[in-house]
Write a structure and sequence with these properties.
The chain is of the alpha/beta class and about 300 residues long. The protein has a single domain, classed as Ribonuclease Z/Hydroxyacylglutathione hydrolase-like (Metallo-beta-lactamase, Chain A, 4-Layer Sandwich), CATH 3.60.15. It is built from nine helices and 16 strands. It has a seven-stranded mixed β-sheet. The protein has a five-stranded mixed β-sheet with strand order 9-10-11-13-14. Strand 15 and strand 16 form a beta hairpin. Helix 6 packs antiparallel against helix 7. The chain starts with a strand and ends with a strand.
Length: about 300
């Protein structure tokens, strides 16, 4: 049975008092970075409120959350201010739920890693979820989670090969495979802020109770959808070497400071022990690229 690395409450990276003073539906972790929790997942809003410049949505939540995302965007950036782009960490169902209607409503480009494009242009389905991991209700029903792709092909573009992030000056994208083959994270060196996606997370996503309570802990990627555990461990180690000051993950609360870095270092060092499940179809047979367009378990 895996165990995870607890985090003290003081590591949480946003202030409820600041949220109340701002009077919108996001949590701000930097002047130009905020997030909103939508059920089981977080979406991020990148850009300075009220500045009239570019802003970007990172990921698109679960199905049915388009009104909540557009509400938060209007509150933060002004009514009618659409983003310059939607940028994806990856294409799992809980990150693309509102992607198609938002891309159509806003008529903006969607960017993702080239290896993730088949899941966003309608040509490939993800490998099936793995219910025999983690011991929690969220994992137990993993085989029921959607794996079919969405299709935003007319607006879909690959992230630039030079590592830059469109409409996000000062940021770079990092290929962090393992949870999915084309998973990416976003890094801003100026303030050491990391948007990790699901490369690692800060709650036990396999457990419905942990998802509800958001008890802070440093956790590997969600077990039930991770298809290559060796690469997942390598991705966590790479991100830990950055020594981030603040992290926003796809699931759980944002964290910052020395306690967060210590927990992330422990996760990286003990990844096999604390993050990798004892049983999974993807332990010895990770999902591989077979033909350049689809990923299947061999």
């Amino acid at each position: 049975m895996t165990q995870q690395v607890p985090l003290p409450p003081e590591a949480i990276a946003f202030s409820p008092e600041d949220d109340a003073a701002r009077n919108d539906t996001t949590h701000e972790i930097a002047a130009d970075v905020a997030y909103r929790r939508l059920g089981i997942v977080n979406v991020a809003f990148i850009g300075t409120p009220g500045a009239g410049g570019d802003w970007v949505l990172v990921d698109a939540g679960v199905a049915g959350t388009r009104p909540l995302i557009t509400q938060a965007a209007a509150e933060r950036f002004g009514e009618g201010r659409k983003p310059s782009a939607i940028i994806m960490t990856h294409g799992h169902f809980d990150h693309v739920g509102a992607l198609e209607p938002l891309a159509e409503e806003w008529d903006v480009p969607v960017f993702a890693h080239p290896l993730e494009l088949p899941y966003l242009n309608g040509t490939a389905a993800y490998p099936p979820g793995e219910p025999a991991v983690g011991g929690g209700m969220m994992a137990a029903v993993a085989k029921l989670y959607p794996t079919r792709p969405v299709n935003v092909g007319q607006r879909l573009q690959p992230l630039p090969a030079d590592g830059s992030v469109p409409f996000m000056p000062g940021w770079q994208w990092l290929h962090t495979p393992g949870h999915s083959v084309g998973h990416v994270s976003f890094w801003r060196a100026a303030d050491r802020l990391l948007i990790a996606g699901d490369a690692f997370i800060t709650t036990a996503q396999e457990s419905a109770y942990a998802v509800m309570t958001q008890a802070p802990e440093m956790h590997g990627p969600p077990m039930y959808f991770t298809v290559d555990w060796e690469k997942a461990g390598q991705s966590v180690a790479m991100l830990e070497r950055l020594k981030p000051e603040t992290v926003l993950t796809g699931h759980g609360q944002p964290m910052h400071g020395p306690a967060m870095r210590q927990a992330l270092a422990e996760l990286a060092q003990r990844f096999q022990e604390v993050a990798v499940p004892e049983e999974s179809r993807y332990l010895s047979r990770p999902a591989l690229v077979e033909d350049g367009s689809a990923y299947v378990a061999p």
